[in-house]
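ESCALATION

Customer reports they have been waiting on this structure for their group meeting. Please prioritize. Original submission:
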Amino acid sequence: MTRALSYIQNVPRSILADKEAQQLDQLFGDIRRNVSDIRASYNTICEQITDGQCGEDMKLEAKKMSQLCETGRSQRTGLLNELDSCQNIDFHVKSQAKVGLLKMQNVVIAMQNKLFGILNFQEQISIDDLLDVEGLIAQMETLINEIPSLQGPNTSEKAFIALQQMYLDERARLEARERAGQGDEKVPETDKQNGEKNPQA
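Update from on-call: job pushed to the front of the queue and completed.
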């Protein structure tokens, strides 16, 4: 019961943490979409190279991809700032999320540098030139999937279970006390009957 009571006392903070996490969900969604858009842009460039379209259209797509990288950097910076201002999300969960986001920032900087070199110093671009870029995108996809959920799982459900357990514990305690009380009442009554049967004892 003590454990359940301790959880109940922490429920208000858990609910606040859930609200904070919900407010950040949109930012996380934007970052995930950004990574998907970068992957889609990369696939378009590969298709253009395969089809022999290594001209201006492909370079425009590469520039678009670079812009997407910059957008993602800005989004992650915004989310990192929001995480710093959150007061109720679990410290360890928040720290893991921040580490993952910072790693993504490093990866995207490397990707931008690679794209800059390809766009400015190579007249012809081949699939092989983009292998490093593909590897960096894969790293970003892995990192975004490894970032833990900020929202506590089923806070309201866990609170209900804890309350239910408190109720069951209290009922069991009262029933045990009631049974013990009934047992105590029977002893004097028996003694009285024995005394009536044996008045000289």
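Sent to customer with the following note: The helical segments are 2-50, 56-85, 91-121, 131-146, 155-197.
Escalation resolved.
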